[in-house]
Amino acid sequence: MRIDVLTLFPEFIHAAAAVGVVGRAQQRGLIEVAAWNPRDFTHDNYRRVDERTFGGGPGMVMSTRPLTDCLAAIRTAVPEPARVIYLTPQGARLTQRRVRELALLPRLALVCGRYEGIDERLIAREIDEEISIGDYVLSGGELGAAVIIDAVGRLQPGALNDADSAAHDSFEDGLLDCPHYTRPEVDAQGDAVPAVLLSGDHAAIARWRRREALGRTWLRRPDLLARMTLSRADRALLDDFRRTWLA
Ligand SMILES: CN1CCN(C(=O)c2nonc2N)CC1
User: Fold this and answer.
1) Alpha-carbon distance 2 to 149, whole Å?
2) Which of 72, 87, 91, 98 has the greatest count of CB atoms below 10 A from its CB?
3) What is the whole-number distance in angstroms between the Cα of residue 140 and the centre of ligand 1?
4) Which residues contact 15 (CB under 8 A, 6 or more apart)?
5) Would you give the end-to-end CA distance of the chain in angstroms?
6) How many angstroms separate the alpha carbon of residue 121 from the centre of ligand 1?
7) Given the residues 116, 185, 187, 201, the one annotated as active site
């Protein structure tokens, strides 16, 4: 997969994509991340990339001409067409389901706005999809781009090894992840690892993990549970968790 990022801060994108699983995926040739700076597509002495907004009021808007020329260069950089995504609070909230769909595409182009954003006509003309990473306002789209690069990059075949398995990540099956424990078995405060995890009984461990994932989702994100149709076995595990929790 190739991801092109239009950003005034290429160094941020390169740094975010160079570490961890995504950095390793790049080294393995599983993903390619390229950053493009619209400032390189300006033609004035000051390399201006912002303009005043029509209608007056505070805030600037990113200049359209450098963005248009930068996007044209991105589109023609390689033959593969890209799905062009604009990061914005006005976008659809990013979900793991959408991440899994985006991870299957051959190429993405992520447009990172700064200031008040980009001209609405540019959105209508150039943007395929608007995505928000959450209901809060950031200073630019770069953090959203980094989120997409990481979430999509780690799902590329071969990116994760067993230690990083995405199989039981939160949201992968609609549920939050179960709790995790490592050494020591009993910590300095005297808190012990749940005995089932030390039992070697893999079936019991799997049941415990599923029960905890169901219970944690019920407690923390009932909205996720409401969207699910639980199997008879899951309903029994959740009932057991609820009985214990409410006892
Ligand atoms: C123009 N700029 C405004 C701030 N911004 C965001 O707050 C944002 N991006 O993605 N999810 C978000 N929330 C990016 C775009």
Assistant:
1) 10
2) 87
3) 5
4) none
5) 50
6) 18
7) 116
SS3 per residue for the chain: CEEEEECCCHHHHHHHHHCHHHHHHHHCCCCEEEEECHHHHCCCCCCCCEEECCCCCCCEEECHHHHHHHHHHHHHHCCCCCEEEEEEEEEEECCHHHHHHHHCCCEEEEEECECCCCCHHHHHHHCCEEEECCCCCCCECHHHHHHHHHHHHCCCCCCCCHHHCCCCCCCCCCCCCCCCCCCCCECCCCCECCHHHHCCCHHHHHHHHHHHHHHHHHHHCHHHHHCCCCCHHHHHHHHHHHHHHHC
**Most informative mutation of 60, 137, 138 for ligand 1 (most atoms within 8 A of CB):** 138
Q: Out of 75, 89, 98, 234, pick the active-site residue.
A: 89
pTM: 0.94
pLDDT digits (tens, 9 = 90+) for 105-115: 999 999 999 99
